[in-house]
Amino acid sequence: MGDDEAQVKGVDDIRYDERGLVPAIVQEQATGQVLMLAYMNRESLSRTLETGRTWFYSRSRQELWPKGETSGHIQKVKSILYDCDADAVLVQVEQVGVACHTGELSCFYRKLMPEGEE
């Protein structure tokens, strides 16, 4: 088995980018719907594993934040998978409330169309 095929055993084995971040795709486990994309660092990923709720790293505020802290729209973690390169994670959750700050269930609610089409 080559290095790329080795099992990741902990948060330090994830391949974080030069800023120490890994993209985290959040998916509703029951339906498969993609809810959001956020970023995690080692600490937020560790807190997510420890608490069973999602924690992310805010690139704009440069701080950790627990999803739903102010809105109450929490994400209960069901499983965390990582991709073949260990440079992205898929967090499968039970979403309580909505995932998007706009009030939409998913952050992916707008459709990109070719220019000139409506």
Strand content: 25-35%
Assign an overall shape: globular
Quick one: biggest sheet? 4 strands, mixed
Stretches with pLDDT under 50, minimum 5 residues: none
Radius of gyration equals 15 Å
CATH superfamily: Phosphoribosyl-AMP cyclohydrolase
SS-based structural class?
mainly beta
How many domains comprise the coordinates? Answer: 1
**At CATH's second level, what is the architecture?**
Roll
Percent of residues in helices comes to under 10%
Strand order of the largest sheet: 2-1-6-5
Query: What average pLDDT do the residues reach?
Result: 93
Task: Write the element-wise H/E pattern from the N-terminal end onward.
Answer: EEHEEEE
- How many DSSP-defined strands? 6
CATH fold node name:
Ubiquitin-like (UB roll)
Distance between the termini: 50 Å
CATH uppermost class: Alpha Beta
**Count of separate DSSP helical elements:** 1
Question: Can you describe what's shown?
Answer:
Helices cover 8% and strands 31% of the residues. By secondary structure, it is mainly beta. The chain has one domain (20-111): Phosphoribosyl-AMP cyclohydrolase (Ubiquitin-like (UB roll)), CATH 3.10.20. The longest helix has 10 residues, at 42-51.
Summarize the structure.
By secondary structure, the chain is mostly beta strands. Helix content is 8%, strand content 31%. It is built from 1 helix and 6 strands; from the N terminus they run E-E-H-E-E-E-E.
